[in-house]
Amino acid sequence: MDLTDIRGTISLRNGVDMPYLGLGVYKSNNGDEVIKAVHSALEIGYRHIDTASMYKNEEGVGEAIRSSGVLRDEIFVTTKVWNDDEGYESTLKAFEKSLKSLQIKYIDLYLIHWPTAKYIDTWRALEKLYRDGKAKAIGVCNCMEHHLEELKNKSEVIPMVLQNEFHPRLVQRDLIDYCKKNNIQYEAWSPLMRGKVMQIEELKQLARKYDKSVAQLVIRWSLQKGVLTIPKSVHKQRILENSQVFDFQILLEDMARIDMLDREERTGAHPDNFMSHFAAKERNKK
C-alpha cells in the first residue's frame, strides 16, 4: 500500500478499490450523532464508512451520505448481516432491508458479522448478491482459519475481506499470513482496543518518539502491516486526528517492538465461543 493519502485504496482480489482507512460507526447513535460523524469524516477526506444492521444507524449513515455533497460512487460503504438474519433467504431479505435503510442502490462490501451455524448458507446468499451486482465485494467478520477453509471448500467465491479484532495486543500473525496466501484482505475492527492502547507504556514512549498520539501511532502501525483500519469516533477533532497518519513512517525496529506487545488479548468474543459470549451478555442485561 502507498500510505501517503487519506483517500488511498487497495485493490481487492476482484479489482474493487477499497480505501485502507475508514470511519467505524459502532455505537454511534442514529440521527444527528452519526450524521455529524459521517459528515465530518467525509469533509476531512475519508471515503470509507463501515456500519452494520446491528448498529441500528444505517438510516443516519445513508442520510449523511446523501446530504454530504460527495458523489455516491466516491464513497465505499460497508454493512453486515447480523446473526439473527443468517440463512439463505433471511440474508437476502436482510440485505434488502439494509439497502432500504441506507437508501442506496448497492453495497460496496457486504459482510457476515459472525460465523453462526448457518454461515455457509448465509455465504451462498452473499455469493448471489455479488453475482447480481448488488454487493460489489463480499467477505466475513470474526473468523478463524478453519472457518475460512470451510468456506473455501464449500463455496464458489472465496471471501475478499476478513474483518477481525486487531490491535497491538491481538495480532494473530498466522491468520494474517493465511489471508495473504489466499488473497483475502485483512481489516481491523477495534484497532485502538476501545481506547485501552492509550494505557500501554511502550506505545506512549514510541508515540513521543514520532511526535504523534498513541492512536496515530497504532493506526499507522496497522496500515503498515497491510491491515485496513476503521477507527471509530463521533468527535470531529478525533476523527481528524485519526486521519493524520500519512506524514510519517514507523521504522522496522519499532514495528517489531509493537508486534511484541501481542498477548492474544481480546476486547470482544473469540469466534469459536462467541455464541456463549453473547448469551452471557444477554443474561447480564436481565
TrEMBL record:
Extent of the signal sequence: none
Keywords: NADP, Oxidoreductase
InterPro entries in the cross-refs: AKR, Aldo/ket_reductase_CS, NAD(P)_OxRdtase_dom_sf, NADP_OxRdtase_dom
Pfam families on file: Aldo_ket_red (PF00248)
Family listed: Belongs to the aldo/keto reductase family.
Protein name, entry field: Aldo/keto reductase
Keyword NADP carried by entry: yes
